[in-house]
Design brief:
This protein is mostly helical. The protein has a domain at 109-199. It has helices at 2-6, 58-69, 79-97, 113-135, 141-165, 171-199. Helix 3 (79-97) runs antiparallel to helix 4 (113-135) and helix 5 packs antiparallel against helix 6. The longest helix is centred in the last third of the chain and has 29 residues, at 171-199. Keywords: Membrane, Transmembrane, Transmembrane helix. The chain crosses the membrane at residues 55-73, 79-98, 119-139, 159-180.
Length: 200
């Protein structure tokens, strides 16, 4: 939520999304009213009101969001714990920031930007999968196997998402059967590993 505030995502816009059904780019939006009373119709970024004489609370919200977003780690935490949290945070940033429905990238192509986002997500999942394989952070091999399966599932899901975004032939097969099979396989393996761990 804090990241969405920093990039001022569509949910925070005080006007309906002018890009949704636009026939031109940038959209041709009529004025909201007299220019002495209202902001420009496209000047809706980082503001909580379109009226010039009303207080804009966006700066306060942005400062609070920036404070919340700052990562902090306790002393004594293992390296892997920090890496794991960084992986989650980087994924969140990529999804929230590289999006045509926020004030950073609203003027970018809504067809190319999702491809860039999915490529970055795939590269991140590959990197963290390799980190899991190299670090092997848990003393119990069952926990390492479970974590390895989880990372592999993230990797396969990112690959499927990229295939869907690229609109390759037969993408529906990947978007349904392959994706659901991947999730089901993860659940099965985790249950099996948990059962084995309990038996030990």
């Amino acid at each position: 939520m804090a990241v969405h505030v920093l990039v001022w995502s569509q949910d925070l816009w005080v006007v309906p999304n002018p890009y949704a059904n636009a026939t031109s780019f940038p959209p041709d939006v009529p004025p909201l009213g007299p220019s002495s009373e209202y902001r420009d119709a496209m000047d809706f970024c980082w503001t909580t009101t379109m009226k010039r004489n009303q207080v804009n609370y966006a700066p306060i919200v942005i400062v609070l969001a920036a404070i919340v977003t700052g990562p902090g780690f306790r002393r004594g935490w293992g390296t892997y714990e920090s890496t794991y949290l960084f992986a989650k945070l980087s994924t969140l940033f990529i999804i929230a920031v590289i999006n045509p429905e926020n004030c950073f990238f609203r003027s970018m192509s809504s067809s190319r930007l999702p491809i860039v986002r999915q490529v970055l997500l795939l590269l991140c999942t590959v990197g963290f999968f390799v980190a899991q394989c190299v670090l092997g952070p848990f003393l119990d091999p069952v926990n390492n196997a479970s974590e390895w399966t989880s990372r592999l599932n993230y990797l396969s899901t990112s690959t499927v998402a990229l295939i869907v975004v690229l609109d390759v032939p037969a993408k529906n097969i990947f978007n349904t059967y392959v994706l659901y099979t991947s999730v089901a396989r993860k659940i099965y393996i985790i249950r099996k590993l948990t059962k084995r761990n309990l038996n030990l």
